[in-house]
């Protein structure tokens, strides 16, 4: 019991001496609606809290910053056990089901004042956040800067991404 | 609950420094509050503060996006007016509670 109390005390001290998070590097490698929004909300939230924030989109995450796809992301209705628990997987695979589920989700988000992806990217840029695309993934999918939304600052290598994340108090999140 | 003394007025604030009674707010008090955040308030700042206060009075939950769509400032200007967390800092200066929005 005594040991436990000492431990609590130590924890309190560590909270008091906490170092603030100064910068976020949010890496998004996924192109599903919920994963992209998680990344956008974290980056935008960091800016709103007065931190710096950069985003690095790679692999399927590139869909989120591709002009033709950004506002047409889908949520997975197959291979997603948390989606409508109890619903047979085959239903999730019916033609049009994924589109329907995604549009319903977007409607719910709109009610909560969550903007469409393209507007969210504008907000992040306006807040001083940096939006970057991964060179390797862009090359692989034959994507050039013209295919990407205007908020994308550059297509960069993983090394340049780490340079952006340099400095004390940086946290990295991978989605 | 803490109190702040500004211009000889006792302002009731919470532990983070947000007003617990928005009716205690005045423009003079806002000027002093802003100085603590190293901001010299201009007319544009007051337009934003008044927008926030009116929305709070209407019980509309505030977000950076709403301020950006207010017609008062765009998001970029909002960040420039209140650097280091625009909605949090402006809400504190506007004498309204800390916003709870994630967007």
TrEMBL record, chain A:
Q: Which Gene3D superfamilies match?
A: DsrEFH-like (3.40.1260.10)
Coiled-coil residue windows: none
Q: Which SUPFAM superfamilies match?
A: DsrEFH-like
Q: What is this protein called?
A: Peroxiredoxin family protein
Name its species: Marivirga sericea
UniProtKB/TrEMBL annotation, chain B:
Record keywords: Cytoplasm
**The organism sits in which domain of life?**
Bacteria
Molecular function (GO) terms listed? Answer: sulfur carrier activity
List the Pfam families: DsrC
Q: Where in the cell is it found?
A: Cytoplasm
> So where's the catalytic machinery, residue-wise?
102
SUPFAM superfamilies recorded: DsrC, the gamma subunit of dissimilatory sulfite reductase (SSF69721)
Instruction: Note the Gene3D superfamilies from the entry.
Output: 3.30.1420.10, DsrC-like protein, C-terminal domain
Q: Which GO cellular component term is one of those annotated?
A: cytoplasm
Gene Ontology BP, a term? tRNA wobble position uridine thiolation
Q: What family classification does the UniProt entry report for this protein?
A: Belongs to the DsrC/TusE family.
PANTHER family, alphabetized = SULFURTRANSFERASE TUSE (PTHR37010:SF1)
Task: Output this protein's name.
Answer: tRNA 2-thiouridine synthesizing protein E
Q: What is the organism field in this record?
A: Marivirga sericea
